[in-house]
């Protein structure tokens, strides 16, 4: 039981100056310890002790410049940000104004909206629009229709700008107004690519507004099922990629088709099409399309159906013949340089 | 060895090796713009005043720069994957005595003012490490932050936090 505060100090000095780790467990009278703290201008701080002169100015953490708050918060995952919001109003505000770097493996923010029928408290089936927003491995936000407003408020309180390589939006059988909800959640998201999937959704004014607002992004539009608005396709002025899912290729009852003239117009704008529900009817169209794609300054992909008779006519017009692996001009065929032509045509 | 004198806000002089100062974007810009590099001019002998940095903090900054002499200097905005940044043991030991104190925060502010990106990154990371896994009240207690919330406000935030999975 150490009785003199000077002894405490001497012991500290010896241990501190020791060349090897040294442990010392002794009893110290409370009054002795208090005198020691007093003499050394040390005060209790949290679970430990700190010199008075080093004691934190209570306002200092909160009064740091905004960019430093942003730096501090940038190292925190979303769950730690949630907790930090409860530390002080300044920290709550700092989290809301912070940047958020999406740390998912594919650096993608995704929104998934779908309609579900659920039973209410009276066991009646009611229609609900379910939205899940996935910002991080730790952050998945869920909402039913009447809670959209809360979800948007919360999103605004978590970060000002989110950085991701890609945003994926998947709308499944939902009302058009949901586009606005997704757009509110996206507010402040900085991205390079947008994947937008549409399921049985009739294009409308909101959708057009969305596409025009995000025309600077590299848009990849997935279309599942019927898509009845050719005007929407024609409204894209910047190159996009449009992909009809093979499982939902339009059937004979589609009621509309893209004709050769529209197809050429769209390809000329630089769009890429995969599994587009069009059947090319004229051999001249094939040549025109090939010329446009060949002259394109950016990679462009075109995957269309062509009637066999039209295709054969095209080959004939270009003096090309079928071979086992590809096509080559008639006159070249006799020289046996099929391999070289195969490579050219595959490219 | 070329020495350049830095003057802290409390007018303490710190002669520092020219090579070390390349870590500070702010000082490097000053040296280049004012021709302090040119030994043939009077400017070379001119001390650089740092009115926003106190002497004891500047001393720590110089100590840090001396240890990190020769480290590659970061350029541009920080676009690293922040989750992967690890505070090396030496730096952890360097920050630890001042952790939860105003000195560490002053050091961080100085790193920002002097534009020493590596020091700023490690210092911020060390502070944010103290937040990890802690609740709001725990952070308040450790960092001496006064509680500004009413019980109702605190409850509202807790409810909002329940929106996440």
UniProtKB/TrEMBL annotation, chain A:
The gene is WBGene00274165. InterPro entries: F-box_dom. It comes from the Eukaryota. This is F-box domain-containing protein.
From TrEMBL, chain B:
It comes from the Eukaryota. Residues 145-165 are annotated as: Disordered. One of its GO terms (cellular component) is cytoplasm. SUPFAM superfamilies: POZ domain, Skp1 dimerisation domain-like. The keyword Nucleotide-binding does not apply. Residues 156-165 have a biased composition (Basic and acidic residues). GO terms for molecular function: cullin family protein binding. Pathway: Protein modification; protein ubiquitination. Pfam families: Skp1, Skp1_POZ. The keyword Lyase does not apply. Keywords: Ubl conjugation pathway. GO terms for biological process: protein ubiquitination; SCF-dependent proteasomal ubiquitin-dependent protein catabolic process. SMART domains: Skp1 (SM00512). Probable essential component of SCF (SKP1-CUL1-F-box protein) E3 ubiquitin-protein ligase complexes, which mediate the ubiquitination and subsequent proteasomal degradation of target proteins. Regulates cell proliferation during embryonic and larval development. Belongs to the SKP1 family. This is Skp1-related protein. It comes from Pristionchus pacificus. The gene is WBGene00273347.
């Amino acid at each position: 039981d150490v009785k003199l505060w000077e002894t405490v100090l001497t012991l500290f000095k010896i241990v501190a100056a020791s060349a090897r780790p040294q442990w010392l467990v002794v009893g110290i009278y409370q009054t002795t310890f208090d005198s020691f703290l007093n003499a050394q201008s040390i005060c209790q701080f949290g679970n430990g002790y700190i010199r008075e002169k080093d004691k934190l100015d209570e306002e200092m953490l909160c009064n740091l410049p905004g960019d430093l708050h942003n730096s501090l918060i940038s190292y925190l995952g979303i769950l730690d940000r949630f907790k930090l919001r409860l530390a002080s109003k300044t920290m709550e505000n700092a989290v809301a104004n912070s940047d958020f770097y999406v740390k998912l493996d594919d650096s993608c923010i995704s929104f998934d909206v779908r309609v579900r029928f659920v039973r209410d408290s009276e066991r009646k089936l009611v229609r609900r629009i379910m939205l899940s927003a996935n910002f991080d491995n730790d952050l998945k936000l869920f909402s039913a229709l009447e809670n959209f407003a809360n979800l948007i408020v919360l999103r605004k309180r978590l970060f000002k700008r989110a950085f991701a390589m890609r945003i994926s939006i998947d709308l499944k059988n939902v009302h058009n107004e949901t586009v606005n909800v997704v757009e509110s959640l996206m507010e402040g998201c900085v991205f390079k690519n947008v994947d937008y999937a549409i399921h049985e959704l009739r294009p409308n004014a909101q959708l057009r507004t969305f596409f025009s607002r995000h025309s600077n992004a590299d848009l990849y539009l997935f279309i599942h099922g019927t898509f009845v608005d050719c005007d929407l396709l024609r409204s894209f002025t910047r190159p996009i990629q449009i992909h009809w899912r093979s499982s939902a290729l339009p059937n004979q009852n589609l009621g509309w088709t893209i004709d050769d003239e529209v197809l050429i117009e769209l390809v000329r704008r630089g769009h890429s099409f995969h599994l587009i529900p069009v059947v090319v009817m004229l051999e001249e169209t094939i040549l025109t399309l090939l010329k446009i794609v060949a002259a394109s300054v950016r990679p462009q992909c075109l995957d269309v159906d062509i009637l066999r008779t039209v295709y054969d006519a095209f080959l004939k017009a270009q003096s090309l013949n079928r071979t086992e692996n590809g096509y080559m001009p008639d006159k070249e065929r006799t020289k046996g340089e099929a391999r070289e032509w195969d490579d050219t045509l595959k490219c | 060895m070329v020495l350049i004198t830095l003057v802290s806000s409390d007018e303490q002089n710190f002669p520092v090796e020219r090579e070390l100062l390349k870590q500070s974007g702010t000082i490097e810009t000053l040296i280049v713009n004012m021709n302090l590099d040119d030994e043939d001019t009077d400017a070379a002998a001119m001390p650089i005043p740092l009115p926003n940095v106190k002497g004891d903090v500047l001393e720590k900054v110089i100590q840090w720069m001396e240890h990190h002499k020769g480290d590659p200097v970061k350029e541009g905005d920080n676009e690293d994957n922040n989750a992967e940044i690890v505070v090396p043991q030496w730096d952890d030991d360097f920050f630890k005595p001042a952790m939860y104190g105003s000195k560490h925060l002053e050091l961080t502010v100085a790193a920002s003012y002097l534009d020493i990106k590596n020091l700023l990154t490690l210092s911020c990371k060390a502070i944010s490490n103290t937040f990890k896994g802690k609740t709001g009240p725990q952070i308040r207690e450790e960092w001496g932050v006064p509680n500004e919330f009413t019980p109702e406000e605190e409850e509202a935030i807790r409810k909002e936090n329940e929106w996440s999975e």
